[in-house]
Amino acid sequence: MKGGNRIALVSAVVLGLITLAAVTAAWIAPYPFDAQDLTRLLEPPSTDHWLGTDRLGRDLFSRLLYGAQISMTVGVVTALIATAFGVIYGMLSGYVGGRLDNLLMRLIDVVYALPDLLLIILLTVWLGRGLLGMLVALSLVSWVTVARLVRGEVLRLLPLAHIEAAKAVGAGHLRIILHHLLPLIAGPLLVTLSFRIPAAILAESTLSFIGIGLAPPTPSWGSMANEGWAALRFSPHLIIVPSVAIVVTILAFNIFGDWLRDRFDPRRI
Amino acid sequence: MLALVVNRLLWGLPVLWLVATLTFALMRAVPGGPFDREKPLPPEIKANVEAKYHLDLPVAQQYLRYLGQLMRGDLGPSYKYLDRDVRAIIAESLPVSAQLGGLAFLVAVVVGLSAGIAAALRPGTWLDRAALVSATIGFALPSFILAVLLILLLAHAWHWLPPALWEGPRHAVLPALALGLGPAAYIARLARTSVLDVSRQEFVRVGRAKGLPPRTVLFAYLLKSGLMPVVTILGPLLAVLITGSFVVEYLFSIPGMGRFFITAVTNRDYPLIMGVTLVYAVVIVVANLAVDLLYGWLDPRIRAQ
CA of A174 to nearest chain B CA: how many angstroms apart? Predict the structure, then answer.
């Protein structure tokens, strides 16, 4: 268990550094993310350009820092929206129960049966391939898992004695939900939230990698990897750098999430 | 048993109908039409083309027409691929995606289960730790990065396997690994946790104490109840692997169904979007049913309900 704590601490530090890079990118990046230097294309790492340049002569290190901004924004905002919406939906379904529950759950079946990719492409066509479109699209496909979890938890908690007692002494619905149900599902929710972030980061980078995510010149790690794929033979650092960034970020989030689960979700080991 | 299957399949019909309706509505809500070009067609020609595909009718009428066609098993023409209708396109590309997805599923289950079970039976050993570390890393590797790694190492550097295309068993190895190893990591973690959990329970100890052969304890006690959580995710996983392999198909230039999601939407090829989406939905409904049946077989309490 001690080893688990140590590695969780390491990943927390890594996440802190990535967040710091994301927040301060505008100040610490040596070049703007879209500044082209057409005299220095596809250069390997050097003292001027720590990680080299891409095929438009843009500084890879600066783009990596701005990419952290994109990834963290997409991850955190999507996870928050999905969780908020999922909590409301799942709470409504589980708490009200009966026919509403049935209806809401069938609706979830439908969303599950719709391909995520289809929803995402349609929505980004509609809202544009900017950050806003990506956030809305990814939130829309990821709230269902949260809603199912919350509903399950609520159904498990409702028959418990302290809820019955609260009802018996005349607590209102809102009071029961806010004071007696939410605190009890906070643990599992926190754990889900921590796994939704890397899932959203993964989804965005994959979409950007195949060219249907964020439009250029946005420095998404996924689109950087895509540009690297085109130059694989001669400039492998172009794909290695963003790929390492993606894997390290997702890995750190997953390890941290595992640690959170061990602490706050005692039902699962 | 039969009643359950029939019941569940009947439940699938309204789900499919809702999927069709929602997709239809979403498609039409997105701006742009199938015959909008950067250089617009002359209005007379556009009107003629739209009349040919009944796009001049009110949307509600188009919707009913489509549903009517669908009941007769006709998925309609593709607006973009004029030589084939949607059914022919799917008949051509779905088997490719299904083969790739099936192989990846096999990789995921075989690799994931053996690693997870082996680790759970020897907790704390180097084997356990190695399995856990590689599963954690494998789980964090996006399939596109895994694919690039495999192509770089096994195809470009060592020339063991072809880097792309779909022309026989040798071509299937890399994409199946790229698609299957991520889920394998997930299955390994899930199986390890759950088998380890079950192995601490009393009925397993009783089984050992009364002198049952280790093999019986392993298969009839440990694995049968320890693998339940794995079974629940197999259905959605199979569905995702069969239909959602678009990234891997893209990277390896495999002529599967995945690419049609992207091209059909950008072309506003309405019937093709509908067709691909409905196939996906059918796969999901059937895969979930299969899991429920398997679940009932593993857990008698559920069968009784």
Answer: 33
Q: What is the pLDDT of residues B90-133, one digit of tens each?
A: 888 888 888 899 999 999 999 999 999 888 888 888 888 888 88
For residue A120 the two structure tokens come to 């995402």
- Among A110, A119, A26, A128, residue whose Cα is nearest residue A68: A26
CA distance A119 to A122: 5
Asked if A269 lies within 8 A of B197 by C-beta distance, the reply is: yes
Among B17, B26, B94, B144, pick the best mutation site for testing chain A contact (most A Cβ within 10 A).
Answer: B144
Whether the pLDDT of residue A269 is over 50: the answer is no
Q: Within an 8 Å CB–CB cutoff, is residue B280 touching chain A?
A: yes
> Could you tell me if B25 lies within 8 Å of chain A, comparing CB atoms?
no
Cβ contacts of B117 within 8 Å, gap of 6 or more: B191, B192, B195, B223
- pLDDT of B222-237, one tens digit each? 787 778 778 878 877 8
pTM: 0.85
